[in-house]
Amino acid sequence: MEAYPSDADIFEHGILVESTGSSIPLNRVASTRLPIYSGYTLCVIDSNGTSLNDRAVRLFVPAGPHAVADFLEEGDLRYCLLAMLYHMNHLVDLYVAGCRVFETDSRIRFARKGNLSDPRIFYEIDALLTVARRVYESIRKVLWKYYMPGSKGRWRSIRMALESNRIPADFGTFLNNSWKSVGEDLAAYRDCLAHYDPLTDGATTCWMEPIANRWGMTVKLPASPKSEGRGRHDYDFDAGPEALEYCHKLACHLVGLCETLQSQTIIATKLANPGTRPE
């Protein structure tokens, strides 16, 4: 991937705009204007332009001296978020690279439409969806640690945690709404990947067309594969979401969900006073 300009914004469909260019009527998904962490090429941002990378790296960090073993579950959750953003970073890279081909190749830059194939896009999507699904299971482990202290075993899945009356009611409602609106579709994608068929056979079609007077890329995911159609013969790409847009909304939602988890009184108190133990 070529180096990005230091003052660039990346919008949906992989459209890169430098400061000297005009803005476009699409949502920004990444930028190089904010600090970029080692190993990343850009900063994934939310709808307000704040850094998801920075928000994630600051989550569940104890305020003082502590034993690493006392915060393993919290560290696992932060790891999943940062891995998700790492794959989001590389997904954006691939979108931008595809757009640059059509922007710079004199043989095709004046075409009306086109397409290219880059299976690496789905390699990143597969990895992102898988680690994003793990965010929910990592949340389940953190909840057990704080709200079931001293109890043997562990909830076997996030679904079991959602049924517990030990979780604070407000957060329980928030988590249930998150699972229904985001988690169920995410779980369907991950289960399809793990137990049924990949989302593509490698012949990835990246549709290219002018968007806001720039070349933009569209890659479709199949509509969420529910129990009635979890194999490639039932995929409906026409009704499915655009991949980069879906993954960006997913990343924004999960970082926000984990921030709400961290703000729960018992967890926030433990992080502020790492020498104490949950009651």
Blueprint (SSEs and pairs):
Layout lengths: L7 E4 L3 E4 L9 E4 L11 E2 L7 H6 L14 H33 L9 E3 L3 H28 L10 H5 L6 H27 L10 E6 L2 E5 L24 H20 L2 H8 L7
Antiparallel strand pairs: 1-2, 1-3, 3-4, 5-6, 6-7
Helix pairs in contact: 2-3, 2-6, 3-5, 3-6, 5-6
Question: Would you give an account of this structure?
Answer:
The protein is of the alpha+beta class. It has one domain (62-272). Helices cover 46% and strands 10% of the residues. The chain has seven helices and seven strands. It has helices at residues 52-57, 72-104, 120-147, 158-162, 169-195, 243-262, 265-272, and strands at residues 8-11, 15-18, 28-31, 43-44, 114-116, 206-211, 214-218. The strands form two sheets. A four-stranded antiparallel sheet has the order 2-1-3-4, with helices on one face. A hairpin with a 2-residue loop joins strand 6 and strand 7. Helix 2 packs antiparallel against helix 3 (120-147), helix 2 packs antiparallel against helix 6 and helix 3 (120-147) packs parallel to helix 6 (243-262).
